[in-house]
């Protein structure tokens, strides 16, 4: 897997990205549009052999304060896999590539956190499988209770 920060050269791949169910995750084109006005949000594309298969945003801004007051933290949000490529292991491969990507691009970061809707069992299982730990904390998000997961970086 190759993780790359979004730039305008990937506009067509984002336009072609298919996310059939966006109840739990924001459409990449919307997340990118919002990130353009926010210097603390970094849209990240995950490629498998040149094909865009997954997307997420790393956020170092104030939104992470909903999750923790710790320093040296990035919030992972808007994680999705293109609907045409689900069930092929790309989501876990992307998350398993996250640690090295962050070490190389954000060396001061010690932990990645995220919120996952407590009803989104497949996502909860995915995050646990990829090393995220349930912190035992939660907060009330826009569509219900969000469990707070953390991935300490080694």
TrEMBL record:
It holds the Pfam family Acetyltransf_1. GO terms for molecular function: acyltransferase activity, transferring groups other than amino-acyl groups. Gene3D superfamilies: 3.40.630.30. InterPro entries: Acyl_CoA_acyltransferase, GNAT_dom. SUPFAM superfamilies: Acyl-CoA N-acyltransferases (Nat) (SSF55729). This is N-acetyltransferase domain-containing protein. Residues 1-154 form the N-acetyltransferase domain. Coiled coil: none annotated.
